[in-house]
Structure formats: structure tokens, C-alpha cells
């Protein structure tokens, strides 16, 4: 299985939408756990890295690398 490429401040799409209806999440913390913030209602969730990698569908927007 290929490792998905994501980094801090990327906007990602998850497999299931948030209850508010939005499916865009921003990665705001990375480590053993990954904290993501809903772009619709600003709710944040903390997921273990392995669970996040299985639930993430794709990266929608890359963070600026500068």
C-alpha cells in the first residue's frame, strides 16, 4: 500500500463528510496523532495517524512550502 503524501496546513478530503455537510478538512497538527479542522464549522478532531491515513481520500490543496 502506497503511503499518502500530506503535510501540515494541507486541505484534505475525507471519505465521509462532517455532519455540518462539509468534506474539506485542514491539517493543523501532525505527530503520532493528527488534528484536523473542518473548513465549514471550525470543529476540530484528533485522529491517530494510522486511522487518519485510512480515512483520508485525497489532498485537495497543498500548503505553501516556502
Strand percent estimate: 35-45%
Shape: globular
Residue stretches low in confidence (pLDDT < 50, at least 5 long) are none
Helix content: 10-25%
Number of strands: 5
Describe the structure.
This is DUF951 domain-containing protein. This protein is mainly β. It has one domain (11-58). It contains 1 helix and 5 strands; from the N terminus they run ββββαβ. A 5-stranded antiparallel β-sheet has the order 4-3-2-1-5. The chain is globular and about 25 Å long. The termini are far apart. The relative contact order is 0.30.
Topology at a glance:
Blueprint: E1 11-14, E2 24-29, E3 33-38, E4 44-48, H1 49-55, E5 56-61
Antiparallel strand pairs: 1-2, 1-5, 2-3, 3-4
Pick out its properties:
66 residues; DUF951 domain-containing protein; globular; 1 helix; mainly beta; DUF951; five-stranded antiparallel β-sheet; single chain
Question: Can you give me a brief rundown of this structure?
Answer:
InterPro entries: DUF951 (IPR009296). The chain is mainly beta and 66 residues long.
